[in-house]
Amino acid sequence: MEFNETPLPSQQVIKKNFVEIHNYPEKPIIEYSETGRSYTYNIIEEGNYPPVAYLKYTKRQNGFRIPDNYEVETSWGKPKKRHLVRCIIKYVDNNPIYWVCYGNNYQHQIKSEKSCSDAASLYAKALDPETKTRHSGPYVFGLQLEILQQARNAKRRAATLKPFDNLTLTGQNNRAKKIAKSVHAIFDQTAIKSCHLEDKPILKSIEFDIKDQPFHINMGEENVEDMKHKVRATVQACDRGQIARDGYRTLALVNHNLPREWRVSSERKEITCEINKLIPISLVNLTSLLSNNDYINSEVHIDDAEIIDNMQQSIGKSGRQSIIDILKYLIPNLVKREVLCMTHPEIYLQISGDGRNVGKNVKHVMITFSILNDKNKLHQTENHYTTTLYPGIEKYEILNIVLEHLIVELRKLKEEGLEDNHGVKWKINLYFSSDWKFLVICLGMNAANSKYFCPWCEVSKEQQGDFSYNWTISHIQPLLFDMIPLQSWVPDELHMMLRITDVLWRLVLDEIRSRNTWGDKARNVIIEEMERIGVKFHFRLEVGSTNWQFTSLMGQDKLTVLQHFDLNKLFPRSRAAQIRNLWNNFYLLHKAVKDSKTDVVQFSNDAREWLHQFLDSSFYQASDITPYMHVLMYHIPEMMHIHRQFGLAAFSCSAVEKKNHQQVSHFFRKTTKDGGGRKGRKSAIIDILEYENRTLYFNNCDEIDLVPKPKRLCI
Q1: Could you tell me if 249 and 273 are in contact, meaning their C-beta atoms sit under 8 angstroms apart?
Q2: Whole-prediction pTM value?
Q3: Which residues span the domain enclosing 379?
Q4: Is the dihedral of CA 596, 598, 599, 604 positive or negative?
Q5: Which pLDDT band, with edges at 50, 70 and 90, does 309 fall under?
Q6: How far apart are CA 491 and CA 369, in angstroms?
Q7: Percent of the chain having pLDDT more than 70?
Q8: Disulfide check for 596: which of 378, 535, 647, 692 has CB 3.0–4.6 Å away?
Q9: Is residue 366 part of a domain?
Q10: CB under 8 Å to 81, separation ≥6 — which residues?
Q11: Which of 604, 628, 648 is the last residue of a domain?
Q12: How many domains does the chain have?
């Protein structure tokens, strides 16, 4: 029998002129050498030292302890006369018995009850009765190997301890602490040898398992400042991900590295209290204005019954914050980030508004502002700051009361500017942008379907197809924000794209119906084509009606349809090409609107040409022109010229809509129910504004960035 005698060990023990080379216990091979001799051992059974009462030693001075249940393959000598034996030691009646097995299959064996040296001598004589060669018994049996002695000592110590499961809870904890203290001591000793004096290595915690019981032991006193940053960073992460308390409590249970929930909750309250002192929140009672509500939403954005119920219970309450307070809080950080410049103290503010349709009768109305100077972050929801919100309806009379405080502040900012906390006087430039409905309400005008619909001119519905008029501005009621000049009321390019795309798609479906090709076949073709281009779409038949409703597409899906839908599957080739050309040209206009480098004159010509192309289509008429098409042709070019500094894409309200939707979906559930079952529960309106305040705090002080990120290594 043979075994590999040349392993590549990774550890050397050099002591008293001998060398042990091994990677034990990962590998069983041990190379041993000293002056004049060398042995290779393959450990089969490590064995153990019996109790002291009958533990035996080899006979020489400072003899080696003799293990029980020990088995090893030993080889030594020159290649041509190489010895290969298997040695076994077992205690019988408290005395060790020695075996030496040899031969190709270890079929021969020598047994001795005297000593390992006697067994080695008998082995030599068995090979050659006349030999005078003597082999060292301890070396043949490998009793001198220190690594084996250490391994058996460790096993023996473990045998004298109680099993972990037999300990009391206190005993288990004490054992874990004892291990941790030993590791800490080793760490300190190693750190002294391995680190520079200025490195200051610190062992903060230790993790290990004993019998599948995990332990996490913190070393030394807790760093109060570090822990505070960590807890505040956790509050920031929970707010950012809108993680509820119960959800976080479960996470903290799974991951012990996370701060406990009670600690996070306490820190959240402290942050909220700090920021609320700087940016107070106030409530306005609107009950009398909203008591008789016969308003019906044309489109439902949120139809969750729980949210609708909670929203209805909040009707009559409005929350607001001072735009001046928010600006004073934001300015230092904006200056630090070089968004604002104190040598040219000028701020460009965009006011926006949005109403989310919650069910059929309620809206959640939100008024925000953003700082156009911060160009790179305009499309992030946290950079649109809420000043006012209320559940109810979008109505001029209500907004006039709800926004009274904001209107006064904006007028003051426009006329006097803003003096910050350091005495710097900032000039304020005001803009307004929102979807069409909210914009015309704030302008005191009629709705988009009225005869005189345009906020920027006096065009009538009948005059939309006439390109010869030079329109002037008129209003039905006074502007809510009369301090903002009309040229600074900017249409939202996103809504313009969405609404015009809606019309183009509706006209396609209307044309299919007019051709008497509307049926299951046409609907199936549309569904298959939508599936091909990766858009989820389906038709549904209204209950008790023959009318077919279809999926309302999201913004990106509308662009996908506009670009990639194969119209040849619905129309003759010539007609499909005509519609495709119209769609392609509108898509190019949409891209040009978003690009601040677009040539305004060229865009104006292209927009007029597109509207001519629209009317030249054999199926479309002047009555199909929508307010947004009119604005695209007549007013967008001028807006692009006036606001080239920012580009019309900067006035997009998509972030405001997203913010409103997220807050309604999160804060009006039962867990944050307005006046819910638990006494003293805060209004959801207050919860939202406090969340907004914490967002302001974390915008100025990003706690997540202050938490050191450990390097994760494996050994």
Answers
A1: no
A2: 0.68
A3: 281-459+473-490+680-703
A4: negative
A5: low
A6: 15
A7: 86
A8: 647
A9: yes
A10: none
A11: 648
A12: 4
